[in-house]
Amino acid sequence: MRPIGYMYKRVDMPEGLDLPGVSDVYSLGDCVNDNFTDYIDFWKHNGYFLFDTPTIMRALADEHAISLKGMRLFYYEAHDLQFDGETGEWMPFSPFHNEVNVLPPVRATLEGFDITSFWAGAGPECSPLSCNYLARSIHTNAHCLLPTFEAAVHVLESGEFKDAEPGPYRIIAVYSIAEH
User: Fold this and answer.
1) I need a surface site. Which of 47, 89, 90, 95 has the fewest CB within 10 A?
2) Local structure of 94: helix, strand or coil
3) Residue 41 carries which DSSP code?
C-alpha cells in the first residue's frame, strides 16, 4: 500500500441512503460523504488529489473561512495496482502529477477498505459500495467499507463491481485520525 494523502470529510448517514447495517459512510469518494470543501481550484492538493498533511487543509480552511466543525479527518493508502473491470487485469498507476510528499500519521485507526473509481485518471471519483448501493448485496462494516484487503480483491475479481461505475478501480485503505 502506498500513502496517497488526507481529507477532512463529513460523515453521517444521508437521509434516504438505505444500506442495512451501515451507520455512516467513510468512503474516499465524495458522492455520499462530502469533502470539507470544493478544494480543486486552490491547487494545494497532491498528485492523488488529496493533501500531503492535515496542516495544509487547516490553513486553507482558515484562509477561506471554511468551517471544519463536524468534519472527521481521514488518511488513505492505495494498493499499488488498480483493477480494470473490462479486462479483469491488475495494472500499475501513477499520480496525476508527481507532487506527492505525504507525511504518514503517527497514529491512525484502520477502518476498512473502500473501492473507488478513477475513470478520468486524476482524483477519486465514486465509491460504488455507497454511491451505487452495492453494500446492499456486498457485506460491509458499519462504515460501508470492506473489512479486509482480501475481501476487496475478491469483490473486484468476482465481477461484483461490473457495470457499477466506469473503472479502473483502486483499493483504498481508510484510516480515521482522532484529533485532540
Assistant:
1) 89
2) coil
3) G
Q: Which long-range contacts (CB under 8 A, 24 or more apart) does 85-89 make?
A: 85/156, 85/159, 85/161, 85/162, 85/167, 85/168, 85/169, 86/167, 88/157
Give the amino acid at 147. Answer: P
CA 128 to CA 132: how far, in whole Å? 5
The pLDDT of residue 26 is: 94
Q: What is d(CA 90, CA 76) in angstroms, rounded to the nearest whole number?
A: 20
**What share of the chain has pLDDT > 90, as a percent?**
61
- Give the bridge partners for 9, in sequence order: 35, 72
Q: Where are the domains of the chain?
A: 2-177
- pLDDT for 125 equals 86
Q: Which three cell numbers stand for residue 38?
A: 470544493
Cβ-based neighbours of 120, under 8 Å, separated by 6 or more: none
The DSSP line for 12-38 is S--TT---TT--S---SSTTTS-BSS-
Residue 73 CA to residue 97 CA, distance in Å, equals 24
Query: Residue 180 — pLDDT band, cuts 50, 70, 90?
Result: low
Average pLDDT on 20-45 reads 88
